[in-house]
Amino acid sequence: MAGRFAPRPPRATPVSPGGSAAVPPRGRVPRQAPAPGAVRVWVPDGPLEPGLVLGPLRRGPGDPTFRSLPDGSVWRASRTPAGPGTLRISVHGGEVRGQAWGPGAGWLLERLPALLGADDDPRAFVPRHRLLALTARRRPGLRLTRTGLVLESLIPSVLEQKVTTLEAYRAWRLLVLRFGEPAPGPAPERMAVMPAPRTWALIPSWEWHRAGVDDKRASTVLRAVRLAARMEETAGMEPEEARRRLEVVPGIGPWTSAETVQRSHGAPDAVTVGDLHLPGIVGYALAGDRSADDAEMLRLLEPYAGQRHRAARLVLLSGQVPPRRAPRMAPRRIERL
After folding, report:
1. Cβ burial 15-44 (10 Å sphere, 16+ → b, else e)
2. 182: which residues sit within 8 A by CB, 6+ positions away?
């Protein structure tokens, strides 16, 4: 699926009513317009909802690496093999327009179709439950994203181990804003690129504690970033092979590896096991059993072998979740200990 690359035309110089170029008042430094960035236009071969496709990459409403704006555009700040980059994605009349800034701009634009699910094949999914058939028909723009970046999915997944989502989102936000770098280009306010592997490795122990990250999760992140090159190599592997390598790192188990390759590889069969809520949600939606465990969830998803992650996504999109009976788990604020 070829795209078209073209630079934006230069911004015109403001002209005063008299016809001469406008001069800023004395003593005021003129504001520099941001570089226009590189552009790629890509036409998908079917329905596409960028917000739906890219939603799993967002780690909470305050994620400094991800922004959705009222104009419908989606912004991402990433650390690519070519360096930091910012990508803005918008859709107009069936065309996807990607605009990127920074050293990683070319890398991001080259992989724009894969990011939006061009490598995914929704037709491989054959619904066996009426609920999933209806949901798939209602959300035809669902594609599975493939970022090609492993650490940017692995690290926040490690931070989400055994804690509430609010705790994990807060930790990711604080660490990226404090130790990352500003997103290149005219990114929305307070967007940042996650820290480089060496920077993660040099974060002092008290800063992890201040962000609410316990020693076990911090140590897992440190082990992963020390093997950053080996971790990123898995982007070119099949999902199951990639998961086996990731799980060699102490502290990375099936839950974390599945959450990672779902995003980095667009893995349609990487169903998450070991999750506190997912088995009950799948059990309730497909069999009316809110007490389902991992084994029962896998049994219910067995007809979707090869597409179990997509089936679980459709369950979550269906809105058929069991009514809450117990109070939410309270966040642990270890930084106050």
Report:
1. eeeeeeeeeeeeeeeeeeeeeebbbbebeb
2. 191, 192, 193
Residue (of 3, 21, 23) closest to 12 by Cα position: 21
Dihedral through CA 55, CA 60, CA 65, CA 66, nearest 10?
40
Q: Residue 17's pLDDT band (boundaries 50, 70, 90)? A: very low
Bridge partners, residue 67, by sequence:
75
Task: Return mean pLDDT, the chain.
Answer: 89
Tell me which fold the domain 38-318 belongs to: Endonuclease III; domain 1 (1.10.340)
| Torsion of the alpha carbons at 229, 62, 262 and 284, rounded to the nearest 10 | 150
Q: Are 42 and 95 in contact (CB under 8 A)?
A: yes
Both tokens assigned to 153: 């999915």
Q: Are 183 and 285 spatial neighbours (Cβ–Cβ below 8 Å)?
A: no
The residue among 301, 298, 297 whose CA lies nearest residue 283 is: 297
Residue 322 contacts residue 281 (beta carbons within 8 Å):
yes
- pLDDT the model gives residue 325: 63
Q: How many alpha carbons fall within 13 Å on the CB side of residue 173?
A: 16
Q: Are 168 and 59 in contact (CB under 8 A)?
A: yes
Return the number of other C-beta atoms located less than 10 Å from residue 165's C-beta.
14
Q: Longest Cα pair distance anywhere in the chain, in angstroms? A: 77
Taking residues 117-143, report their average pLDDT.
96
> For a pLDDT cut of 90, what percent of the chain falls above it?
82
Q: CA–CA separation, 252 vs 247, rounded Å?
A: 5
Tell me the C-alpha distance between 210 and 177, whole Å.
Answer: 13
Residue 68 φ/ψ region, left for φ over 0, alpha for ψ in the -120 to 50 degree band, beta for the rest: beta
In the chain, where are the structural domains located? 38-318
Cα→Cα distances 134→46, 125, 141, 314, 319, Å: 18, 13, 13, 9, 12
Between CA 8 and CA 81 the distance in angstroms is 25
